[in-house]
Amino acid sequence: MRRFAALYAALDGSSGTNARVDALVAYFSDVEAADGAWALHVLLGKQGKRLITGRRLRQICLEESQLPEWLFDDCYAQVGDSAETITLLWSQTGAGTSEPLHNWMEQLLPAAAALEGSEQAEAVRQLWRSLCPAELLVANKLLTGGLRVGVAQGLVVRALAILSGVEEAQLQHRLMGGFKPSAAALTALLASADLAEAVPSRPYPFFLASPLEQQPASPASEWLAEWKFDGIRGQLIRRANEVYLWSRGEELIGTAFPELLAAAGCLADGTVLDGEILVWLTNSNQPAPFAQLQRRLGRKAPGRKLLAECPAAFVAYDLLELGGDDLRQRPLSQRRFALEGLLHDLPETTSTPAAGLLRLSPRLPLTAWEQLEPLRQQAASAAAEGLMLKALASPYLSGRKRGQWWKHKRDPYTLDAVLLYAQAGSGRRANLFTDYTFGLWSAEGELVSFAKAYSGLNDGEITALDRWIRSHTTERFGPVRAVQPLQVFELAFEGLQRSSRHKSGIAVRFPRIARWRQDKPAIEADSLATALALLASQP
Amino acid sequence: MPIPAGCLLERTPQGLYCRAAAAWIDPVVPVPRALITHAHADHARPGCGEYWAVGASEAILRQRLGATINLIPVDYGALHRIGQARVSFHSAGHVLGSAQIRLEAGGESWLVSGDYKRCADPSCAPFESVQADVFITEATFGLPIYRWQSGSKVAGEILSWWQAAPERPSMLFAYAFGKAQRLLAELAAIGVEEEILLHGAVEALMPAYREAGVRLPPTLPMSALGKGESLAGRLVIAPPSAHRSMWMKRFKLPQTAFMSGWMAVRGARRRRGYERGFVMSDHADWPGLIHSVQQSGARQVYVTHGNSDGLARYLREVEGISAEPLEGSGGP
Q: Which of A41, A386, A474, B186 has the smallest count of CB within 10 Å of its CB?
């Protein structure tokens, strides 16, 4: 635990990639495998749900410190992190722990979490008393499940590759589908040969596209254009007479989509498809809006009614494995050809489960670059977010590698809205007002809150707006400040949906700040009526 | 709640005013007579007719406000009659020559803390506990998350940080007046004899500190360093304004750290883009603030600077001391 806390401090303090990789290599090079496995698990952000809520820890801390609750909340507003706030408020400094990390993860922390009431409070304080401040911060973050180190998985994998001599891509693949922290699992991961027998459920690492920066240099005929669908990315695996559906977040989500599992049953063994999960109504020629899919995502096991109202489809755009052979190094043109053949050969009658459920992502007509922009303009009417451009010669790489796969989104919708409320952010935005709520004018001439946005301003604008908010606060509701409705911002977003859960009656998808309209008086901001008209005009 | 009318001190647009002494304390604009707690730029401003300040701050005040200012140097603890008031300056432990100012007239005594700290600092006189009917305290770090370790402990941490990077320059950012010299004195106190490099803004304060007899390690202004001389393994102290400026171009792959009470919070360090933060402040921490209020014996406390609302509320609700923010509520 002591060494892991030191690693955390080292990673937290260094900004350079090399320094971070060095720190990781130094840590993993002589750590006990059982501890290293847990460290890796935590570094990959795979630590599951929290053991104790931040709220409960706050209570346990307050019982001992005798500080009033409002003062804790003031401190939290300054710190922006409850585990860190408690660490700073806990005024006793222990000698430090000699217990290894895996004991903390497997026994000490779960044991404290399993207790209740005053027994739990005393157990937690007992742990706290034994720790020095650096360890206390890490322990609190492990308890609340919120330990985010801010190292990308790629960096951790790079360090492990340096240590073990196993290629990064190979490590990425072995890590797919979940790493169960144990000494044996870490040893197997870093073994030179793939010791673990092939795990049928194991997905391939996803290849991710980057935003298109400029028109590619090669001719348009060397590229495949497809719609960029607004669903969730998935990998559908048919191996060993079983079907597995993975999300990009490496969650098995098959039970939420039983119809897709059933449909994939007609694929031959040793087939892996990469594609988009969408809701697609029978007889419709395009997918339903994302909100429909969201209803499905919220359910572990959907009922018959939901299955009928929001039927899912898997739109395949790549074939990663066929007949048990890994096709990823083949050019996209070959993989696509095989994919077209595969889906074409599926039985087409409505009596088979695959009909309409496994679809081929259509190839859009692109022979010259002049056609690109008109195609992008059509994206909204095809219920797509934009275009995907993939080099026909591209292998299926892993992670986000620029150059071969691009996403080219359609222009977002925009509305001018008025800043109504602000709240301090957390982490590095602690104590800065960075979480904003915006309103539009109602027919009655009142501002109705419409969207929240956190991103889009640069550091200078954030600082200026923070100062403005502090001097134009009209009311405080706990951490939230109401401000004079004077500042107008152009908000960009991907779409609007009717919603009974929002005061405005509208839910906004991916809102962010496009511009601070300091030139515009609040009275000229957009109205709810404009937003409703925009909603009605969406496909 | 503002200060009631008819008190010894009152708030005016120019700053805190004592009618009996016809003097302002740390006025924000030029006034005929100014009583100065210390020489930081937000407390000592140019253009006043007459300055009263502790003798140890005279050199720095003249350097900053003009050599010809009309300055009356006083000793800590000496009682002066100014107009109808009796005025004394008491060490605040903040920086060289810093003072709390006590004023008394008409059977009423007030103590204005200025900026202060209570932990030991080898670069200036220690904080003196003073009693008064009314105490105006600062609250820069008025939250219980701020609790300081001793300066020598932090200096030790800085020394290990510096020594762990023999192949890179170590750039430590700290306020040029006070904090930088305190660190130098703390380093000298734990036995550092190696030459330390200084940014020009830090160097400007060194003569006053050396004159005052503060024990310091050898220092060299960056401007006196030979062209092309290696900076590997050197410790450089610079003001925060130099961070990420053109001035830093000269340093190849430096490790950077900022030394400030604000560094207690990770988010504050990350926002400023420093790799390391060392928690050392020249202001009182939370226990120091509470302790000072209790020791002052004041029946009424006003809180200014920083978390004045929060500290005043805590004093009222938990300590049972009559306390109000000086600026009134609603401030940031």
A: A474
